[in-house]
Amino acid sequence: MTEDDLREHFGRQAVDALIALLRSGQTPEIDPRIFEATLAESGIETESVRLLDAATEAHLVERIRAWRCPQSICHRIIDAEAVANHHCPYCASDFRETGENPVETFVYRSSKAISRSVPWLIAIHGFNTRGPWQEDFSWRIAHRFKYHAPVLIYKYGLVRVGVLFRWRHAMLARGLGARIRKAVADARENQIEEPPDIVIHSFGSQLFRLVLEMPEFSDLKFGRIIAVGSVIRPDFDWSPYLRNGRIEAVLCQCGGQDGAVPFAQFFIPDTGPAGRYGFIDPCVINVRDDKYGHSTAFAARELSRNLARGGRWDRFLREPIASFSDSSRFELTAWSPVFALVRHFTRAFTILLFGAITFGLVRFACRCLA
Ligand SMILES: [Zn+2]
Question: Class of the 121-345 domain?
Answer without folding.
Answer: alpha beta
